Amino acid sequence: MPPAPKPLVQIRGVALTLESAAGAVNILRGVDLEVAPSETLAITGPSGSGKSTLLAVMTGLEHPSEGTITVAGLDLGTMDEDALALFRRDTIGIVFQSFYLIPTMTALENVAVPLELAGNKDAFTIAAAGLEAAGLGPRMGHYPSQMSGGEQQRVAVARAFAGVPALVIADEPTGNLDTTTGAAIVELMFSIQASQQTSLVLITHDPAIAERCDRVVHMRDGRVFATTAVD
Known about the structure:
Layout lengths: L8 E12 L2 E13 L4 E5 L6 H8 L7 E6 L2 E2 L5 H11 E4 L11 H11 L5 H11 L15 H14 L4 E5 L7 H18 L2 E5 L3 H4 L4 E6 L2 E7 L2
Parallel strand pairs: 3-8, 3-9, 6-7, 7-8
Antiparallel strand pairs: 1-2, 1-4, 4-5, 9-10
Helix pairs in contact: 3-4, 3-5, 4-5, 5-6
């Protein structure tokens, strides 16, 4: 039997404590978690349980008080801010609840410019193909203000996957959308993930979305309370 592949993400004993006027606040309390290559993982839990903070430390946007985080063989704790920025550019795609598109750029430019900044000479060709796959071929030249919320999130999804990152992080990607539009966005994300074999970690309050993932991690009070494999 061949050995199991190494985890893409390894989180060991991660804690995060922030100071406030009322004293120290423990956001994360000794989290251990692994994400396998090509795995889809849902993170659920009540508000304030540490879900978004866990994604932030996973991407190097937040620095833990304790513990280690390794992504794609890189120890984030040894990297300065410039190295972390390059790591995110080359390794991670992010989809937020808000779309975070640049309002003065067209859909095509919003997807292509990050690729261009990364030195990809085929940035606009790749971006156009990604938007076509997202069902936005006729809308490439439109600005965010000319697009619906669902269309803007499709642009954001195309941007996140355009560079074929090893890991895509999605924080409540359907939170600002109606049920039908949100379901279409989820379908798009899982379709691209399957074709690219990218690892996908997403926060969701929707059990139907969580059940589409390989595993579901339940958080409570800054800890991983339980992990469930989905049949």
